[in-house]
Amino acid sequence: MREDRKKVRDPEGSEKRDGRRSLAVRDVGLIRHARNGDLDSIKQMIKEGANINEQDETGWTVLHEACVRNLPRIVDYLLRHGANSGLANVNGDTALHCAARVGCLRIVRALLYYNADPILSNHKGEKPLDLCHDSEVSSFLKQ
C-alpha cells in the first residue's frame, strides 16, 4: 500500500510521504553527516574535495541542514571553508531563512558576518525576519 501514499512537499522543499520526510531526498553525503551532527566526517569529506556547496534536487545544502538542526559549530566550520550562504532551496529559502526560523542567534550572527543577505525574500515574499519567532534573534535582525 506504500504506492498509494500521497507525496507532499515540506517547507524546506523535500518530499514527504504522509507527513514524514523522505530521507532519500536529502541524502547527499555532506548533508547526511550534518543531519547526524558529524563534524569530523564533514571535515574529512571537505579535505578530500567534497563540494561544500553541493545542492540536492530540492536545492538543500549542508549549510541549510546545519542551520535547521541548530548546529553552530558545523555552521561556523562551513562558513570558514567557503560555504555559500546565498544558495536558496526550491522555496527560495537561504540558510539565513532557516536559521531565523530556528531562532539560533549564534548561527544568525555567523551568517551575517559572512555576508548573508537579511533582506532577501523567499518565493513567498518572506524575509528571514518574517520567519523569526525568537525575540532576541528578531531584534538582532532588525538592526
From TrEMBL:
<dbReference type="InterPro" id="IPR002110">
    <property type="entry name" value="Ankyrin_rpt"/>
</dbReference>
<feature type="repeat" description="ANK">
    <location>
        <begin position="58"/>
        <end position="90"/>
    </location>
</feature>
<protein>
    <submittedName>
        <fullName>Ankyrin repeat domain-containing protein</fullName>
    </submittedName>
</protein>
<feature type="repeat" description="ANK">
    <location>
        <begin position="91"/>
        <end position="123"/>
    </location>
</feature>
<dbReference type="Pfam" id="PF12796">
    <property type="entry name" value="Ank_2"/>
</dbReference>
<keyword id="KW-0677">Repeat</keyword>
<keyword id="KW-0040">ANK repeat</keyword>
<dbReference type="GO" id="GO:0031436">
    <property type="term" value="C:BRCA1-BARD1 complex"/>
</dbReference>
<dbReference type="GO" id="GO:0070531">
    <property type="term" value="C:BRCA1-A complex"/>
</dbReference>
<dbReference type="GO" id="GO:0004842">
    <property type="term" value="F:ubiquitin-protein transferase activity"/>
</dbReference>
<dbReference type="GO" id="GO:0085020">
    <property type="term" value="P:protein K6-linked ubiquitination"/>
</dbReference>
<dbReference type="InterPro" id="IPR036770">
    <property type="entry name" value="Ankyrin_rpt-contain_sf"/>
</dbReference>
<feature type="region of interest" description="Disordered">
    <location>
        <begin position="1"/>
        <end position="20"/>
    </location>
</feature>
